[in-house]
Design a protein that fits this description.
There is one protein chain. The protein is mostly helical and 189 residues long. The protein contains 7 helices and no strands.
């Protein structure tokens, strides 16, 4: 006789839902899906803005920072294909969505203790955006051509500035999502 049968025989019926059942309930999974969709939306919005700003910078300044954003000719599988600008932009957006979902989940976990201020989330996420920009710019050395030279200070500055802006926008948007989703449940710092 298992525990449940013993409890029934004593007249004690266990609750229909345990904590584990509640985390897998349609309501709970629906809310989680909505949060993930919101984080993905942040990635689409911020990634689109990043791409459009870098495209405008390239158009106006001649520094090929938009080309660097879309460049995939050094990626092992992708280098075998001739990709259109649209396809490369979609790849960029997928990366932005994945990054924002990961950041959203990390901030959500942090927010269980207390929701950081908008300024703190924006600043930290801007630094993450800047770090990503710093790590990605040197891929220009791996390119077959068309990207800015590694020693182009104006291209570096545009690239880093726009990535810092991207990170700040992501931080602010994720703050808004977390604040809206948890306005009653979270203590604010």
């Amino acid at each position: 006789m298992n525990t449940s049968d013993r409890e029934k025989s004593k007249g004690q019926i266990p609750p229909a839902e345990t904590a584990a059942d509640q985390t897998l309930s349609p309501t709970s999974s629906g809310r989680r899906g909505m949060r993930l969709a919101a984080y993905a939306g942040v990635g689409l919005a911020a990634g689109t803005a990043l791409g459009l700003i870098l495209k405008a910078v390239q158009s106006l300044s001649g520094h090929r920072v938009y080309r660097l954003l879309l460049n995939a000719d050094y990626v092992p599988v992708l280098k075998n294909f001739r990709l259109s600008e649209w396809t490369e932009f979609v790849i960029h957006l997928i990366i932005s969505v994945v990054l924002c979902v990961v950041l959203g989940l990390l901030w959500e976990r942090r927010a269980k203790r207390s929701l950081p201020s908008a300024g703190r989330m924006t600043g930290i996420t801007a630094l993450i955006g800047g770090a990503i920009g710093l790590l990605l710019y040197p891929t220009t050395l791996l390119s077959r051509g068309g990207t800015p030279p590694i020693d182009s200070l104006p291209a570096w500055l545009w690239w880093l500035g726009v990535h810092l802006l991207y990170g700040a926008a992501v931080g602010l948007l994720l703050y808004a999502v977390l604040r809206a989703k948890n306005s009653d449940a979270l203590p604010r710092r």
